[in-house]
């Protein structure tokens, strides 16, 4: 190759790289930090030595270098980027603080991280920065300073890291009993976390040092740890923990461990063994016995023994009528017959549920099953039950259904005019609900009154947050952008604005499903928002059709309706 050809090829490559956008380069490097991808990212930065895109490339490089423990390179790149990214000072200072802490430059790390703690508006890194500042103080031999920062920012510090940091601070200060107490909160409260492993090692060390002065864990905490394994569907670990607690606990707590070991056996796929084990238990504690009877109801249903199931429900009613375990048993048994469409069996169970436990949130579920069956059977009491449901359960998701079917009953008995108030109330208060469409049809196609628009205009603070998030996304740091926007929604209000921006960014990177999840999580009230009160963009993002071009082509080729095909 001639020298002229080589120069020409270099210029072509340089121009191509300049034309290339940063986001795919940065994202690719972070996903797989190979030398070639690093070189491409840094070359992009060198071609943009004075603008923000070059600085963002250096920020992306610095983030990955910290993840790869290349701290000196990260510091060099982050400090170079900082001058051109004043909007992201807290992000850069947090990354620099991590690198300096890893290099044991504690004073410099604290200086950097304290600027994150004092950032205005508050930084999403504030809690994590407090943890790092505390770690720097501990490593430099200043436990009181670590206590101070952990207490000042306790609301922001993520858990279980915060309690583990407190345990380390107490241990360093010589207060071993308090260290054990904090470590126990981690070990028993977060059993599946890596912090629980560290807490276990600390507790073993402290137990040796304290001897008889070691603070015993609360029985409730010990049972709670096993219960968290059960909640996580890890029946094997749950059962093992419960069985180990039988020899460690006494009284009612010991009996609860016995009962729950049997429950873990059932969820682990052995309902027959669990059934036999629980039936054989003889207990003194009313609380443990009520729980045992409930699990026997579960087991009887699992082994298809409805007679035994009803027998245990009856024993709960006789022995422990006010126990929440009786309520759970009534629902469990009622659902058994509901799935078999046997109203003669499930209606009495559900009625006992809402009559015996009227203040429990689950009462609305039971009441609706009874009311709906009465309506289907056109029983005389159906109207009273529907009206009662609407009045008694303001949080029920069946309130619009109750109104609609009250309208249908009134229409059938007294004509359309008598039903109008029910339909009108649905249209006025529940315009997005399925029953609003049906109510509008009953009223001759009338639609709900136009709602006042909800503000989707971001405040000055939110504009700043959105601008930061877009910069981060353009650098392939979409997780940082998400953190910024979620933090803003929690702290600064206007969740609808942040939800829209989160969904917008997700759609831009080809993840419309994630955009929908953002809207559901950040702005859960979107379904109660009238259509004309929010911008069209929100509804398109909340109800995405990601494969629309392909569906349109296929639909046209086969003469199919687009929305029918999508559905």
Keywords:
single chain; 567 residues; mainly alpha; 32 helices
Write up this protein:
- With 567 residues, this protein is an all-alpha fold.
- Among the domains are: 397-449, no CATH class; 460-566.
- Helix content is 73%, strand content 0%.
- The chain is built from 32 helices and no strands.
- It has helices at residues 3-19, 22-31, 35-47, 52-67, 71-82, 89-102, 106-117, 126-139, 143-152, 161-173, 176-189, 194-210, 219-231, 235-246, 251-267, 271-280, 286-302, 306-319, 324-338, 343-356, 363-376, 382-392, 399-414, 416-429, 434-442, 460-474, 478-492, 495-508, 512-522, 536-542, 548-558, 562-566.
- Helix 10 runs antiparallel to helix 11, helix 15 packs parallel to helix 17 (286-302) and helix 26 (460-474) packs antiparallel against helix 27.
- The longest helix has 17 residues, at 3-19.
- The chain starts with a helix and ends with a helix.
Give a topology summary.
Elements: H1 3-19, H2 22-31, H3 35-47, H4 52-67, H5 71-82, H6 89-102, H7 106-117, H8 126-139, H9 143-152, H10 161-173, H11 176-189, H12 194-210, H13 219-231, H14 235-246, H15 251-267, H16 271-280, H17 286-302, H18 306-319, H19 324-338, H20 343-356, H21 363-376, H22 382-392, H23 399-414, H24 416-429, H25 434-442, H26 460-474, H27 478-492, H28 495-508, H29 512-522, H30 536-542, H31 548-558, H32 562-566
Name the structural class: mainly alpha
Radius of gyration in whole Å, from Cα? Answer: 31 Å
Shape: flat
Low-confidence stretches: 4-19
The counted number of beta strands is 0
Helix content: over 70%
Q: Largest sheet, described in full?
A: none
Please count the helical segments: 32
Oligomer: single chain
Termini separation comes to: 59 Å
């Amino acid at each position: 190759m001639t020298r002229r050809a080589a120069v020409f090829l270099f210029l072509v490559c340089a121009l191509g790289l300049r034309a290339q956008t940063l986001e795919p380069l940065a994202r690719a490097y972070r996903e797989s930090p190979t030398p070639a991808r690093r070189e491409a990212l840094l070359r992009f930065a060198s071609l943009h030595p004075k603008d923000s895109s070059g600085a963002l490339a250096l920020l992306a490089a610095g983030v990955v270098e910290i993840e790869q423990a290349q701290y000196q390179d990260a510091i060099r790149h982050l400090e170079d980027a900082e001058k051109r990214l004043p909007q992201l000072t807290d992000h850069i200072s947090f990354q620099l603080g991590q690198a300096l802490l890893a290099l044991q430059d504690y004073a410099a790390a604290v200086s950097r991280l304290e600027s994150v703690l004092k950032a205005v508006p508050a930084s999403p890194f504030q809690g994590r920065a407090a943890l790092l500042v505390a770690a720097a103080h501990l490593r430099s031999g200043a436990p009181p300073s670590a206590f101070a920062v952990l207490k000042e920012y306790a609301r922001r510090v993520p858990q279980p890291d915060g309690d583990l940091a407190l345990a380390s601070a107490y241990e360093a200060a010589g207060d071993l009993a308090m260290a054990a107490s904090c470590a126990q909160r981690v070990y028993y409260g977060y059993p599946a976390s890596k912090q629980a492993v560290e807490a276990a090692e600390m507790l073993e060390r402290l137990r040796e040092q304290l001897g008889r002065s070691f603070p015993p864990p609360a029985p409730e905490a010990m049972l709670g740890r096993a219960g968290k394994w059960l909640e996580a569907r890890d029946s094997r670990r749950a059962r093992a923990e419960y069985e180990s607690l039988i020899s460690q606990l006494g009284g009612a707590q010991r009996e609860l461990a016995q009962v729950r070991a049997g429950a873990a056996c059932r969820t682990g796929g052995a309902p027959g063994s669990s059934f036999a084990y629980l039936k054989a238990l003889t207990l003194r504690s009313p609380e443990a016995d009520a729980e045992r009877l409930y699990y026997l109801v579960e087991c009887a249903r699992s082994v298809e023994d409805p007679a035994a199931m009803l027998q245990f429900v009856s024993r709960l009613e006789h022995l422990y009528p006010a126990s929440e375990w009786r309520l759970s048993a009534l629902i469990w048994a009622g659902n058994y017959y509901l799935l078999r469409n046997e109203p003669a069996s499930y209606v009495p169970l559900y009625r006992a549920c809402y009559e015996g436990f009227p203040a429990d949130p689950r009462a609305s579920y039971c009441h609706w099953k009874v009311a709906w069956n009465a309506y289907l059977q056109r029983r005389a009491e159906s109207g009273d039950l529907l009206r009662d449901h609407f009045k008694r359960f303001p949080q029920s998701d069946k309130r619009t259904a109750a109104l609609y079917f009250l309208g249908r009953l009134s229409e059938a008995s007294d004509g359309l005019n008598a039903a109008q108030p029910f339909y009108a109330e649905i249209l006025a208060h529940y315009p997005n609900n399925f029953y609003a469409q049906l109510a509008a049809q009953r009223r001759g196609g009338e639609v709900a009154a136009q709602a006042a628009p909800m503000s989707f205009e971001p405040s000055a603070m939110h504009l700043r947050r959105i601008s930061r998030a877009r910069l981060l996304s353009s650098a392939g740091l979409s997780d940082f952008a998400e953190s910024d926007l979620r933090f803003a929604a929690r702290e600064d209000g206007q969740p609808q604005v942040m939800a829209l921006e989160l969904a917008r960014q997700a759609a831009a990177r080809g993840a419309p499903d994630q955009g929908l999840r953002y809207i559901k999580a950040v702005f859960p009230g979107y379904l109660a928002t009238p259509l004309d009160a929010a911008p069209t963009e929100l509804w398109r993002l909340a109800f995405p059709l990601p494969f629309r071009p392909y569906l349109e082509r296929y639909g046209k080729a086969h003469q199919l309706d687009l929305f029918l095909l999508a559905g």
